Automatic annotation (TrEMBL), chains A, B:
Pfam families registered for this protein in UniProt: DGOK (PF05035)
Domain of life: Bacteria
InterPro entries, sorted: DGOK, DGOK_C, DGOK_N
UniProt name for this protein: 2-dehydro-3-deoxygalactonokinase
Gene3D superfamilies reported for this sequence: 2-keto-3-deoxy-galactonokinase, C-terminal domain, 2-keto-3-deoxy-galactonokinase, substrate binding domain
């Protein structure tokens, strides 16, 4: 249909693409693992051709790591505080390719430095669609968990925790790996791990305790992965001193949503489930309209 | 000579063996990477035969992971508080092999659980030889850093931090790996990392900042490994609330000794260099005499 386009959430390891109608209705979708780590910069024109063969020969708007120095073309970060208008203004138009790449957001001021690429579309989309208030705290777990704060509708803070990556590294390699091949589930062992990790200054000591507890029969080997996951997620969530009595907009689904919700509630916050696909759709469609 | 024996410090990845005279004088030595991870339980008789062919057909006393469930024969842990007498009493005699395996030490009481195998010989040896006072705090960095406290000549506390292992995992795999291939040295970047990591509850956020700082030109890529090492060692050292004005007996040599000494001094302690080979020699010879 006239005015249709393709929206892509192009991340580090995964890619999701949708055909979107001019009125913002999301249609046919495609999900695969052709993330930026699987591609070189030269691969993108052919990748777009493949996507267009599936979803229609349409213009493209893409968010995420596709705009990083590991992706197709680097799009400079927009500085926080940032809103959708700033993202739209920072977009990179590639007219020959019929594509538009969105920037990420950087936190440059103050003591800390942090960056995001992709999460900002979900967060600002959630605000625009009224799914979350203009002053909110978002938590978006994954390989890297992002804590994103908004103030008066702008992204004002971000902290990225390597939580998921560290768990994967410990599970795949090293001294704990043989003990971490069990399932991870919310339960007594996970909650005990959260209690150990929350607020801990000695995270690396807490991680070695997984081994010591198993060796000394204080933790069942089958529960070791849940305990270790609890330690890491507990440290991640418990590091925030601003959770008490605060709603946390949890952009996650499945097991990770369950685990983070449990940890957030344990640390005094209130986890509110938010549909990250719906939030992305709301954000990217507004950006599409703003960049016409 | 009559009364000579072979002393072995048999660790996870490395092995050191010495011919020792009856009076405790350490002679010819052998160092290799035939640690327990390179061996199965059935390999040990042949390994001892090889060592004896080099160092003499003598009785053997061995400490370390050789007595773990990943080693030759499991020797149950001795509980803290523990001294040399307790270690000697817990040794496993293998008369057919002409060998004696020493136990490790476990911390079972209280909230935390921790274990060690091998470090206890150095710590108690240092006390026995008068290299450190009877009430002391030891720091023994490596793949796993051990903090060991002694009270009135007994090991009363231990905390193991996965510091070195985490750095190796991050350097070998994952999002930071490409940034961490530079050298690690004490300097401004390392000290900035120590300051960021010391006392931090958000270690996994601090680690992601390595990437963000490089991307945002706040850290030279060549300094990223030193900064990351500083964050991890700073978190390890800074997690201890008991360092202010306190001497720390540092059982390390080379670069790791330099880095930990810098971090200990930054966190208000006073690092004292201790020769870990001399400490091991003093401890194992006393254990040898006590188990005759």
């Amino acid at each position: 249909m006239a005015g249709d386009y393709i929206a892509i959430d192009w991340g580090t390891t995964n890619r999701r693409a949708w055909r979107v109608a001019a009125d913002g209705t999301f249609g046919e979708a495609l999900r695969d693992s052709r993330g930026v780590l699987a591609l070189t910069a030269d691969d993108y024109p052919a990748e777009l051709a493949t996507l267009r063969a599936r979803l229609g020969d349409l213009p493209v708007i893409a968010a995420g790591m596709v705009g990083s120095n590991r992706g197709w073309r680097e799009v400079p970060y927009v500085d926080a505080p940032a809103d959708l208008t700033a993202l739209a203004a920072g977009a990179l138009h590639l007219p020959d390719a019929g594509a538009l790449l969105l920037p990420g957001v950087a936190l440059r001021g103050g003591e800390r430095a942090d960056v995001m690429r992709g999460e900002e579309v979900q967060v600002l989309g959630a605000l625009a669609a009224g799914l979350a208030p203009a002053d909110a705290l978002f938590c978006q777990p994954g390989t890297h968990n992002k804590w994103i704060a908004t103030t008066a509708g702008q992204i004002t803070d971000v902290a990225t925790a390597l939580t998921g990556e560290l768990f994967a590294l410990l599970r795949g390699h090293g001294i704990l790996s043989a003990m971490l091949d069990g399932p991870v589930a919310d339960g007594a062992a996970f909650r005990a791990g959260v209690a150990r990790g929350a607020g801990a200054r000695d995270l690396t000591v807490a991680l070695f305790e997984v081994r010591a507890r198993v060796l000394l029969d204080r933790l069942d080997a089958v529960d070791a992965a849940s305990f270790a996951s609890g330690v890491l997620i507990g440290a991640d969530v418990g590091a925030r001193s601003d959770l008490k009595g605060r709603p946390v907009q949890l952009l996650a689904s499945g097991d990770l949503a369950t685990l983070y919700a449990a940890a957030i509630d344990s640390c005094g916050g209130t986890a509110l489930a938010l549909d990250n696909e719906r939030a992305f759709a709301a954000g990217i469609h507004r950006l599409w309209e703003m960049t016409r």
